[in-house]
Write a structure and sequence with these properties.
The chain has one domain: Alpha-Beta Barrel (TIM Barrel), CATH 3.20.20. The chain is an alpha/beta fold and 242 residues long. The radius of gyration is 20 Å and the shape is globular. Helices cover 28% and strands 26% of the residues. Helix 3 links the parallel strand 6 and strand 7. The N terminus is likely disordered. The chain is built from 6 helices and 13 strands.
């Protein structure tokens, strides 16, 4: 009887630990930094946001490079810091593209937003960081004085990126936001990519998708450059139930 009771207690303790460690769905109500894409109505949590990354334009592959405005009007955000995000599929930005970016930054700032800076959303392959850095050097030269620079990054950067190239990026950008999802789904096995996240030599945030799974990796507890989470918001119909 004693052995049976002890076994039962051990089983209950193990089950409790497993439940505590199981991934939890990402709920925007628990966060204060968000990606807000075109066509996505902001949930109530955005009203108390600390920082917002708002998609303003896209530069698509094919044909001449041009900045496509993704919003019907200029955002008016009073409380949160705002990043103008430009999603790009190419790096051959010419004078026309830069004129469009400069004009958009000016409109957003003039509208009274607390414009923090420009974010470049580009899927730069880990093997192509040298080429990407050359592009970012041009971006830094083009930005108006006082405009900060944020970029998105892939999970693979912290695991397999060249430490020397990553260190050079640290001198160019103010932060990188590491994406843990593809489309609307968390990337399976994401924890393995974060084993050495604390060695990434630049300020970084982690991007989560609304409704996706997430368990904080152990390395974050010792990560001095970790600056919080940014939740990618989805349309209500696209959020998967827990």
């Amino acid at each position: 009887m004693i052995r049976t009771r002890a076994a039962l207690l051990a089983a209950l303790a193990l089950a409790s630990c497993q439940r505590a460690e199981s991934p939890q769905p990402v709920d925007p109500a628990n966060y204060d930094q968000f990606f807000l894409w075109a066509g996505v109505p902001p949930p109530p949590a955005v009203a108390r946001a600390r920082e917002l990354y708002i998609l303003g334009g896209e530069i698509r592959r094919g044909g001449p490079a041009r900045l496509v405005d993704m919003r019907a009007g200029v955002p008016h955000v009073r409380s949160a810091k705002v990043w103008l995000t430009v999603r790009t599929e190419r790096l051959d930005w010419d004078t026309r593209v830069w004129n469009g970016v400069h004009a958009m930054l000016a409109r957003w700032r003039t509208a009274g937003n607390r414009l923090e800076g420009l974010q470049i959303d580009f899927d730069a392959a880990t093997s192509g960081l040298t080429h990407y850095r050359a592009f970012l050097e041009q971006v830094r030269r083009e930005l108006p004085p006082g405009t900060r620079l944020s970029i998105t990054g892939l999970l693979d950067w912290s695991a397999n990126g060249d430490p020397a190239e990553l260190a050079r990026l640290a001198g160019l950008v103010d932060e990188v936001v590491i994406q843990t999802y593809q489309g609307r789904t968390t990337i399976p096995g994401y924890a393995a990519w974060f084993r050495h996240i604390d060695t990434l030599p630049l300020r970084h945030k982690i991007a989560l998708v609304e409704g996706g799974e997430w368990t904080p990796p152990a390395a974050l507890a010792r990560d001095r450059r970790f600056a919080g989470y940014v939740v990618f918001l989805l349309k209500p119909s696209a959020v998967r139930p827990p």
